[in-house]
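[Automated response] Your request has been received and processed.

Submitted sequence:
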Amino acid sequence: MTKVEAVVIRERVETVIDAVEAETGHVGVTVVEAIGHGRQRGITHEYRGRIFESRFLPKAVLTFVVEDEIAATVVDAIVDSARSGNESGDGIVWSTPVENVTHNRTGLALEEVEVG
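Generated structure:
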């Protein structure tokens, strides 16, 4: 099994989830709201004549636990669908191998639950 995690802008969450499902058929995802910044170090904006700096931007962290065979396809679907067209700030995606994934309700390994 592989855990694929992605930090994306909030506006692209549904688009990314739909793309992963369309490309792979995988539907399980965990979404956590987050704030942060990358190389752009936030944004500066003006409101009523005053300049404000927002160091941390609203993001979402999406976590998918998938079969190893589809992990690369999941990553590709995320990268393609998370792209907003902005110069920066679209987030990142990475994958990590995971072991001993157990379904809480049944106590069975996730692979056994997925097959059954």
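Summary generated for your ticket: The CA atoms of residues 23 and 77 lie 7 Å apart. The chain has three helices and six strands.
If you did not submit this request, please reply to this message.
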